[in-house]
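Ops channel
N.P.: pipeline sanity check, posting one input/output pair.
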C-alpha cells in the first residue's frame, strides 16, 4: 500500500497530466483549425459578411473597389492573412505583399492592408508564436508525465470525476464571458495582450481587414469551434489513455 508521499506524487502527476492535456488539446485544435482556414467560407455565409462588405466597402476611399470583389477573392485573402500570422518571422513581409483585384478599378491590383493593420497582425503573429511554444512545451511535459505515471503505476483518476471537473471549468468560463459580455471580454483581452501604442480597433469603413472578418463577430464562432474541438480531442485522448495504454500495462483504471 502506498504511503502519503506516494499518493501525493500520484495526485500531482495526474493534475499535471490533466492541465498539460488541456493545453495540448487547445494547441492541436488550433493547428487543425488553421489547416482548414478556420472554416472561413462557412462563417462568411452564416454571418453575411458579403452584406457587410457591400455596405461599408464603398465608403472606404483609401482602399477602393473592394465591394466589387467576389467571395473566392475574399476567402483567398483571409486564408493568406491566417497563414501569415502563423509565422512571426515572415508575417510582416507576407502581409504587406497582399493585394486584391477589383473589377473595373483604375489599377488592377490594390494593396489590401494599411500600415497600422499590418502592425496589429504582426502583434497577433507574435502572440500565436508564443502560443505555439507553450503548446509544444505542453506536449513534451504531457508525454513525460504520462511515462512517469505509468512507471509509478498510478491509476488514472475517475473518468467521471475528471469529466465533471473539466466541464464545470469550461461552463464557468462560458457563463462568466456571457455575464460580462463577449464584446467587452474581447476588447479587454486586446487591451491586455497588445501594446497600448498600437491601434487594434478599426472601423469597417476604414479597414478591409475588419470588413473581411466582420470583427469581432467572426471570432465568436471560431472561438466556439476551437473550444469544442479541443474538448473532443481531450476526451478522445483520455479515452485512449485509459482504455488502451494503461490496460496494456495491466494497471487498473477507476
Amino acid at each position: 500500500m502506498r504511503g502519503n508521499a506516494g499518493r501525493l506524487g500520484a495526485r500531482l502527476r495526474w493534475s499535471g497530466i490533466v492541465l498539460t492535456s488541456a493545453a495540448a488539446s487547445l494547441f492541436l485544435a488550433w493547428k487543425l483549425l488553421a489547416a482548414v482556414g478556420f472554416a472561413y467560407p462557412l462563417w462568411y455565409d452564416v454571418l453575411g459578411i458579403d452584406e457587410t462588405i457591400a455596405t461599408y466597402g464603398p465608403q472606404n476611399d483609401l482602399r477602393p473597389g473592394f465591394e466589387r470583389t467576389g467571395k473566392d477573392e475574399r476567402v483567398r485573402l483571409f486564408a493568406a492573412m491566417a497563414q501569415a500570422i502563423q509565422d512571426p518571422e515572415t508575417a510582416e513581409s507576407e502581409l504587406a505583399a497582399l493585394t486584391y483585384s477589383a473589377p473595373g478599378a483604375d489599377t488592377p491590383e490594390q494593396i489590401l492592408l494599411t500600415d497600422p493593420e499590418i502592425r496589429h497582425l504582426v502583434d497577433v503573429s507574435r502572440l500565436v508564436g508564443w502560443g505555439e511554444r507553450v503548446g509544444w512545451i505542453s506536449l513534451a511535459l504531457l508525454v513525460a508525465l504520462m511515462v512517469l505515471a505509468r512507471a509509478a503505476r498510478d491509476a488514472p483518476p475517475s473518468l467521471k470525476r475528471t469529466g465533471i471537473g473539466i466541464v464545470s471549468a469550461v461552463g464557468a468560463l462560458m457563463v462568466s464571458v456571457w455575464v460580462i459580455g463577449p464584446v467587452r471580454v474581447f476588447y479587454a483581452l486586446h487591451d491586455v495582450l497588445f501594446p497600448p501604442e498600437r491601434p487594434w480597433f478599426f472601423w469597417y469603413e476604414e479597414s478591409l481587414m475588419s470588413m473581411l472578418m466582420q470583427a469581432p463577430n467572426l471570432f465568436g464562432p471560431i472561438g466556439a469551434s476551437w473550444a469544442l474541438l479541443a474538448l473532443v480531442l481531450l476526451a478522445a485522448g483520455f479515452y485512449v489513455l485509459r482504455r488502451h495504454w494503461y490496460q496494456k500495462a495491466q494497471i487498473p483504471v477507476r
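N.P.: looks fine end to end. Residues 115-151 form the longest helix (37 residues).
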